Amino acid sequence: MDNTTHTFKLVIVVGSVREGRFGPTVASWVADQANAHGAFEVEVVDLADFELPLALPAVPPLMAGDAYPIPRTLAPLTGALSGADAFILVTPEYNHSYPASLKAAIDWHFTQWAAKPVGFVSYGGAAGGRHAVLHLENVLTELHAVTVRDGLSFPKYYLNWEDGLPQDPEAQTYAKAMLEQLAWWAGALKAARAVAPYPG
Fold first, then answer.
1. Contacts for 193 with CB less than 8 Å, ≥ 6 apart
2. H, E, C per residue of the chain
3. Measured between alpha carbons, how far is residue 171 from residues 102, 117, 121, 140, 168 in Å?
4. pTM for the whole thing?
5. β-pair partners for 146
6. Which residues contact 138 (CB under 8 A, 6 or more apart)?
7. How far is CA 28 from the centre of its chain?
8. Residue 91: is it exposed, middle or buried by C-beta count within 10 angstroms (0-12/13-18/19+)?
9. Alpha-carbon distance 162 to 157, whole Å?
10. Residue 38: left if φ>0, alpha if ψ -120 to 50, beta else—which one?
């Protein structure tokens, strides 16, 4: 793809709000890779910056449409997700799944994810957060997002990062593969949405 003629808005979401979390370090490195790639305008959105209510309205967003009462405090998050052409979700693994903060952020939105590509970067213990990603793939598919095949997983991140950088020599290669897929899908889906509204 010609990255000089295509710029897509990429939103990188820091999914953990836990005290002492490692997510911002991972997200910063991923943002550097995305900026270096050249196809993206990158925005990092940290869920710790928002109050994410767990109690949802009675009528789901698919049925409520524009009347869905998203809290005003989430307006910057909603705006970022709405304006994105692609996403990367950065997630740890808690008890074989992903954080409640990330689920809340996803559940407060619906059309913002539809017909857009999503990549995943996970970190954790021996599994590197892969259980969390498997769950997220199911959830984002339900929301009509397109999950890309290639992502990054960082097992035992607490031993394998130094000075904000992963020590795996293949990490940049894996990141490039994911970003290439995101850029391709971002272009294809943006063009399709411009021709006709997504029927979902």
1. 115
2. CCCCCCCEEEEEEECCCCCCCCHHHHHHHHHHHHHHHCCEEEEEEEHHHCCCCCCCCCCCHHHHHHHCCCCHHHHHHHHHHHHCCEEEEEEECECCECCHHHHHHHHCCCCCCCCCEEEEEEEECCCCCHHHHHHHHHHHHHCCCEECCCCEEEECHHHHEECCEECCCCHHHHHHHHHHHHHHHHHHHHHHHHHCCCCC
3. 24, 21, 11, 24, 5
4. 0.95
5. 117
6. none
7. 13
8. buried
9. 9
10. left
Q: Looking at this protein, which amino acid is placed at residue 101?
A: S
pLDDT one digit per residue (tens) for the chain, 200 residues: 444 456 999 999 999 999 999 999 999 999 999 999 999 999 999 999 999 999 999 998 888 988 999 999 999 999 999 999 999 999 999 999 999 999 999 999 999 999 999 999 999 999 999 999 999 999 999 999 999 999 999 999 999 999 999 999 999 999 999 999 999 999 999 999 999 999 97
The partner residues of 10 in beta bridges, in order of sequence, read: 42, 86
How many Cβ atoms are within 10 Å of 55's Cβ, its own excluded? 5
φ and ψ at residue 165, rounded to 5 degrees: -130, 140
Distance from C-alpha of 43 to C-alpha of 84, rounded to nearest angstrom: 9
